[in-house]
Amino acid sequence: MGSGLYQVDFTKADRPRTWKYSARYYIDIVKQNGFPAGEDELPLYGHFRDDMMWSTATASYQIEGAWRADGKGLSIWDTFAHTPLRVSNDDTGDVACDSYHKPDEDVRMLQNLGVGFYRFSISWSRVLPDGTTAHVNEPGLRYYEYLVDALLSSNSTLPQITLFHWDLPQALQDVGGWENDTIVERFTQYADLMFSRLGHKVKHWITINEPYIFTNIGHGYGAAAPGISFRPGTLPYIVGHNLLKAHAEAWHLYNSTYRPSQKGIISITLNSDWRAFRGLVINTVLSQFQLGWFAHPIFVGDYSELMKTTIRNRSLELVCGRVWAGLGCGSVWVWVGLGVAVCGCGRGLAEVDVLLCSRGTGTVVDRAWLDSGSGWLKVTPFGFRRILKFIKENYGNPPIIVTENGVSQRQMDLNDTLRQHYYTEYINQALKAYLLDGVDIRGYTAWSLMDNLEWATGFAEQFGLYFVNRSDPKLTRTPKVSVQTFSTIIRCNGFPDPKSGHECLKPQPEGTSPASVHF
Ligand code: NOJ
């Protein structure tokens, strides 16, 4: 292969020339005199709605530690992480960030950041050691009561509680976990307890975090707890179905019994990728097998026709030997909690997976996309705006709270330029979705408040706004520079033109909690 922009055929006497694609590419550069920023890259100046809910998130197993403290029962993540070779470096959540013993420190970090909300999850087995309401572990419950009070008294950071962020009580797994449909009642009883004990102070509830990930990684690939991989063609669908029913039961319970007096809101967090460059058709298939798997039953009342027929046909072809289980499920949403930790991502060329088998499409990753500390996560801000618009157009313009968005790094980096870039670009795309596309965005949540246990990859992938020093027994937390980036966006409630020199853009003296000076 020669290095020319044109290929020359040396076997022919007249040496014919044929242009290569690189020639076209170069012609464009010459024509445009460089690389002018496209609409996607140009910053938009403006602000979000006045009551925008700025938040940051964590999850119980990833930060709490204290895995056997004060009567806590074991969860499937305790078991999984204590099984050799399941988690990188044999990391466990035994201590994690020790947040169980550091609620005040965590609250101070939130204050310093200036968020109005904090999304955290309850460890089901800390409150109900065997998963049932037969025995309520009061000391475990007290930790959450303390945290809620500390949040409310500190400048009023409002709690957003996730009831299930993947750490199922082991005792429930022992009787079949999410495969056994009695789990629906167990979950509803657990939700009932939490609404009754915390609901007079907590007004934002999320039933289940990212069922797609929990279902597939935990029950299809087996790379997360409970680590089951021997029935990838059926189990994820059964588990997904019970998760949907559990969400619906808890939602209705809250709606009829608690909402009238407690006046809160409740929803579910669904994750979604945006797949670019392969045309609308493929994106639709992928979205219906990911976001739509759970969103369609909730918004429309049943699984989508596309998903049902694709799975049925491929099962009949015996491509996957899959049992098709399409069941209806009616529950209405008030808002969608959208956890977008990744946009425009794919799992690479080696995608021979259970889903690929049933949905019949694969994905590739553009090598031009910026990498992160996680193999699956590429920095593609444009995808964020696209997926937000997709939700507006496909699910009747629901109010959206982004319940996660963030990026990982693998090395300790207090001046985390990648994360500063990531938050600036992604939030600016959310602003475009809000102002230009009319998407009803009510809130944005950064993942994560601090470096924590990134599931089966252990502590190696760090998503935190705060660095947690794991070599220090006190597990000290230090703000990374991205804390300033995110605080400034919160303080301004968006992006004023830098030329305006607006007050909100001015750096805040260290240690002060940033006053809100929205422009
Ligand atoms: C989504 C999950 O909810 C969270 O637990 C995880 O750490 C982040 N994505 C990053 O992978």
Automatic annotation (TrEMBL):
PROSITE patterns named among the record's database cross-references? GLYCOSYL_HYDROL_F1_1
Q: Which family does it belong to?
A: Belongs to the glycosyl hydrolase 1 family.
Please provide the Gene Ontology terms (biological process) for this protein: carbohydrate metabolic process
* Catalytic residues as annotated in Swiss-Prot or TrEMBL: E404
Entry-linked Pfam families: Glyco_hydro_1
Q: Where is the composition biased (Polar residues)?
A: 510-519
Sequence segments annotated as region (Disordered)? 500-519
* InterPro entries noted in UniProt: GH, Glyco_hydro_1, Glyco_hydro_1_AS
Any one GO molecular-function label of the UniProt entry: lactase activity
Name of the featured protein: Lactase
Q: Transmembrane region positions?
A: none
